[in-house]
Amino acid sequence: MSADSTPTNPNAGGSKETANPTVDGSELIRFDKVTKRFGSNTVLDELDFKVDSGKHVTLIGPSGSGKTTILRLLMTLMKPDEGTIKVGGEYLTHEERGGKLVPAGDKHIREVRKNIGMVFQQFNLFPNMKVLRNITEAPVHVLGLSKDEADERARELLDLVGLGDRCDAYPTQLSGGQQQRVAIARALAMRPQVLLLDEVTSALDPELVAGVLDVLRDIAHSTDITMLCVTHEMNFARDISDQVLMFDSGRIIESGSPEKIFGDPDHERTREFLSAVL
Amino acid sequence: MKWDWSSVGDFMPVFWDGVLVTLQALVLSVIVAFTLGLVWAMAQRSTLKAVSWPVTVVTEFIRNTPLLVQLFFLYYVLPEWGITFSALTTGVIGLGLHYSTYTAEVYRAGIDGVPVGQWEAATALNLPRSRTWLAVILPQAIRRVIPALGNYVVAMLKDSPLIATIGVLEMLGEARQFGSVTFQMVEPLVVVGIAFIVIAYPASLLLRALERRLVR
Amino acid sequence: MSEITPGLWELVFKGLWITVQLTVFSAALGAVVALVIGLARTHRLWIVRFLSGAYFEIFRGTSALVFMFLVFFALPLGFGWQLVPMWAAVLAMGLTYGAYGSEIVRGAVAAVSPAQREAGIALSFTPAQSLRKVILPQAWPEMVPPLNNLLIELLKGTALVSILGVNDITFAGSLVRNATGESAPIYTVILVMYFVLAFVMTRGMRLLERQAKAGIGQAPPKRRKLSLRQTNDLAASGVSGGTGGAA
Q1: Which residues, 6 or more positions from A178, have their beta carbon under 8 angstroms from its beta carbon?
Q2: Which of A250, B70, B204, B205 has minimal Cβ neighbours within 10 Å of its Cβ?
Q3: In angstroms, how far is the first alpha carbon of chain B from the final one?
Q4: Predicted model pTM
Q5: Is A114 close to B126, i.e. CB distance below 8 A?
Q6: CA gap B95, B164 in Å, rounded
Q7: Residues of B in contact with A77 (CB under 8 A)
Q8: Over chain B (216 residues), what is each successive 10-residue block's mean pLDDT?
Q9: What CATH number does the domain located at C6-240 have?
Q10: Does residue B126 belong to the interface with chain A, where contact is any CB pair within 8 Å?
Q11: Which ipTM value was assigned to this complex?
């Protein structure tokens, strides 16, 4: 656990080993011929793609097309079978040792992973901790913030997501929408450069979806955080995205601005998909 | 046969000594069983085969062989290897070690019951492994397994007289000693038998109430 | 200090045979007790339920070893006849483990769906017919895995009788230890023998389980490698733990 010495830095997750975290439109995430299989099923097939710093990128496509797998690979919840992933210029699952690329050690993964935050479909809040501690746990024990600093940061974030008054609640006492907003605050408390959003509204009752999306819109427009988002909420995707990637069968079949993809897609498959979900 | 109340009266002073030793042995061996069991459960989850395999083999072996023989083993063999403990310590180690292989299974089930999303959230927050275990997984796992662990406390209480066989003067040990001196065996045995029911029955009622509250 | 001589080995194997006999006879008695008490606990008359329930509760609170001592010392005094130690042991073990087993029987019978009972009634079976032809065949496959655990507990429990002078394998162990003056070899041998017995019993019970499951058209479950027992999930821990557990 390495303490972060500059918690006041707006992108405090960055360390000296990673690339300059400032938003300059430089390449932040890069997939190089990434292949992922489950048994005989190839979910990602030699996938190449990149995301520039500060961009909001949405992945759309039919379920099972490998969108979520991309997020899970980035979060190191699974390992690619082939290919490499770079985050901020650093290999994520590999490291260079003696001029050769070898599978990364725990320490290396930990260091690069600091730049990435994730919000899950099922929230995954820690039920044994109150809301505030859910948010402060990692800043204290990973970034090395003092309890007070972490508390202050957590309270600010809870205000941001509209739950400033629920610090002392346990997650089970909250609605799904509230839990998801806490989960967003929890991810942001680590000041990641990249926020991964994995179908964050899919597990919510319909009436609770809007509140969560509003919070995310707010964050997308008011911060320069890079977002990588898997969603079935096409209106939301249109609102926040700089770029939309259409996935099918483990490949990106089309990418472009939301206006382009939602308005006048090139690919027949995209057209079909959109007419089915819109 | 005639029931001799005066014999009961004569037995009572040493009986209370025995109760104290029984409870002392129980508390200590429960601590051993609960702690070691957790160690086994975590070791069995290790991704290192060199750790998980031997632990699985050893715990399976201990769990499927008699506590009595294990007590003899510890009591007679350890001194041959130059390790000497008091009878009580040996008994506590034996009882605790034996039951740690049961509590390990309980912990394992509890840990497996923590949703995989909790591990993933901990990874996403970059929590160190030790912190993930201590702050996230174990608090959730242990809450679920408290009633099951409680059952083993009662089971251990009932097996605690086995340590009388290596000379610990707990309740049964005191009864045997009393019987060998006075040739009145039945009265002290009945007293001890009732004592076990008197301790174990309310304990298991309490556990059932606890189980209803904790396991939803 | 000396080797374990052929004569001593013979002692050990005789003891092993006694242990096997003890296990088989106690299990047989225990099975009868478990079935009778277990079914009585689901009986429609409250007095039957109460008495059988009391039997179970008393044994659940009782230390098996203390009960064994009582059987050995009190029965001869109270009834004027001296049981052969072997049979006193079988009696004590059968009554004790039968009580634990009754919980397994009761649970499995209670788990058979009420619709099956109603079907039995609809076909005008007598209660006994319904039990024999409908309820028990369906409850049986559910009983086998926890009974396997209990059987291993019973096997381990037979070691206790050595304290009361039954010359089982543990008793033989003490004799050999005295004769050779060494503890490690003989107790290692004995522990391994118990483990092998447990292993063999588990294999047998798995066959039985497979057969029972096939009898009602189910596939056998997958198991963890290495493990002799059905995994104690939390719900089942009550009847599988230690000396029968205390749930």
Answers
A1: A163, A166
A2: B205
A3: 52
A4: 0.82
A5: yes
A6: 12
A7: 120, 123-124
A8: 79 87 93 95 89 93 94 91 91 96 94 94 94 93 88 91 88 86 85 87 82 67
A9: 1.10.3720.10
A10: yes
A11: 0.86
